[in-house]
Amino acid sequence: MKDTAWATVFEDDRRIRIETSELEAAIPKRDPKQWMTGIEKGSFVDRKTGFREAGDGLMVVDWLMEAGSDESYSGSVIADDGHGVGRYRWHENEPDPVSREYAILSHGSSHQKRMIEGPQLCHRMKPVQPDVTRGRDFIAVRTWYRFEYAAPGRNTGSWWTQLIVFPRGERFFMLMDRIESVNDSPEMFLRNDTPGCVRHTRGDSFSEIYLSYLSGPQGLRIPSSEFFDPFPPDRKFGYRRDLNRTPDHFIRAYRLRDPETGADGPWLGGLTLDPSVVYEAWCSQRPGDIIVMILEMHGRPVKAGDTFSAAHIVGYFDSIEEMHAVYGRYRGHRKLAVDASGWTLS
Q: E strands along 138-289, which residues?
């Protein structure tokens, strides 16, 4: 355990846990409660209200991907961990109607995509050793990982780095995901959950969802009742850069609700600070009482040796207006850097 004047950092062989006057959060190193990346499931607590996130963790990272079909090799290429390199989604020749229906509800059927490199970091990643930087008015945690296998004809070894900064006195953290690619691609992107999924039973854990980039400048407020029945990501509440106008702000948030009393709590929001970095994003109800809030970042031509990144703010807010005010202070950035003297966005 190490203390600063305003925060305490606890570290053991399983995770790093941070407590400030505003927040509690944990970053896993091994054996996570759900996923290996981002903020650990159930650990993100708003000390002002006592609410915590209602999903499986925050800013969870998935594949390195591109547009296109993997049908020619799907199921025939097996990675070292025993899992197929392809076939993350339904193909027309899928023989199992149950698998076909689930895949369509999970991924849709209108925009084919395939993995470039794996593993799927959220649950196939080996143990990591993040480093912690403590400053006068911030705590930062950096995690990195090299992708271990690739689709046929592609190289292995791109680096993923996630940097999380907890500023003093705030109910939110800054986060950057960064990729250093060893492959060429006409349309490479990294997939994650922004801010995270929502677990619920007919809306017991949240009352509404807010998407700032749909339905005009005021955004779209969606009641929980819209998520009682499963629907695929390409049916409603979706965003594609090639089909939508790039918005001024890109905010995705859900209003927490006390399952016992029904009382509303704070908003838990994910603010992607440069809207143009978003390739595709959706907010859909999967079978099993889970809302997924997938965001795919970059989605542009990449050459081996290139890097790309996205920066976000994730945390608790009392109102939609507060989220937009914070966004206005930090908008336009894709990079986050830190050293002992401080942190910067660029």
A: 138-146, 149-150, 159-167, 172-180, 185-193, 198-199, 206-211, 220-223, 239-240, 251-257, 264-272, 278-286
